[in-house]
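S2.1 Query sequence (Syntaxin binding protein 3)
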Amino acid sequence: TFKYNKILILDQFTTRLLSSCCKMSNLMSEGITIVEDLHKNREPVPEMKAIYFMRPTAECIDKFIDDFKPKPKYKAAFVFFTDYCPDDLFDKMKKNCAKHIKVCKEINISFLPLEAQVSVSGDAFKSLYSPNSKDRDQTLETIANQIVTLCATLDEYPGVRYKKDSANGNKLAELVDNKLARHYELDDNSKKKGKTPALLLIVDRALDPVSPVLHELTYQAMAYDLIPIKDNTYEYDTLKDGSKKEALLNEEDELWVKLRHMHIAEDLAVGADADGQKVKDPMRTLLPVLLHPHDTTDKIRAVLLYIFSLNGTTAENLNKLIQHVKIEEESGYILNWKHLGVPILSTPSMFSFRKPSRRDRSDQETYNVSRWTPVIKDIMEDAVENKLDVKDWPYQSECPSAWNGSRAVSARQKHKGSSPDDLRSGSRLIVFVLGGVSYSEMRCAYEVTHANKSCEVIIGSTHILTPRGLLEDIYNLGKQPMESFNIEDKP
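Output structure tokens follow.
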């Protein structure tokens, strides 16, 4: 609809968003010749029209107004917001710049589509779990808005359930359900949308502390655990002349799409039975794999996995473990898990914390290491089979009883390496994990989708976790009172 020679102006979040799904050549083919940063000083180009793609925040609106007062930098503005623009900000923009705005539209995409079935909204770990957090409610509001835009993009109006005893999960489920109701009362057709055969599950990180800490033996998880990968790009030295090159790991890389979930079962398979049977004592499996004589991080991870397997340990035993790892001054790596609701010290009241029951997978293929199955895979499978216990997973809003059933969903964008077309009919399960999701949990969405061809599973979260990154996040929870920040502005 636009002619050539347009300027595209982005904020920090929309820059990441576009980078995750298109290249500069794609933009140029649509007539974009210049891409600019909203928050940086820019030279006026009064003969060109500008497309603004930005979040509806006070900071972005102020920057936009500055572009047209006292003198316009561009011939006209076409404004696209990632999600709903609050009335006060919309009125402020209209009052100051109405004559310059040719288009103003909300397009409902305030999340990052990282893979075919994976999306993230923005790192909010400290806001959610720090005992000193001053903006937890604001952060949950932002996350709720982002989940609503994901549902709107998928054209789904799901029923909402959450994990009982998760205060953050309960609050988020309520916010999302209310915002979805408002969104679908105000759709473009001025027609109220009914519930679709979809289910949104709100899961808290405390449900499964093991998966993001465990050294995952798959291509994707090990790559991010062991290789310094930033923004899906890693740098390597060539053998020929020692020069540095970069490789991009995304949906366009067919080898990456094919291998990212394959098991690596070679020399790393130390410490498991030769037949690949599970070892009952987790330490016998974990110590040879995770304990390195010079790597404190791996020792911390092994200690945590030991504590998680016991559902907490005694203060005396915990002190001995901390001394053994020599982290007396950094004990927060272990102790701060309590802020997530994960039991570290066993107490007489521990009966109130119940580990989730696990599915029997003894008949499934194993490798020569004991394979941990993330708890979230059990949850996904139970949800698809309508077996989630209502006592553990209360309804914030009801969804159709034949949820895992029959309708064909609207056409979706096809991705290289994605599932066959028959996986794209049926219903959707959307799982959102508060506090971050691990690569092993992302893999579960693909596995359950392939196993249950009538249902597509999409997993979303605030951010993606690596074991080392999570440990730093946990450690930082105990630091001094935090300053308030907007999760969308965090790099």
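Residues 261-370 form a domain with the Serine Threonine Protein Phosphatase 5, Tetratricopeptide repeat fold (CATH 1.25.40.60). The radius of gyration is 24 Å.
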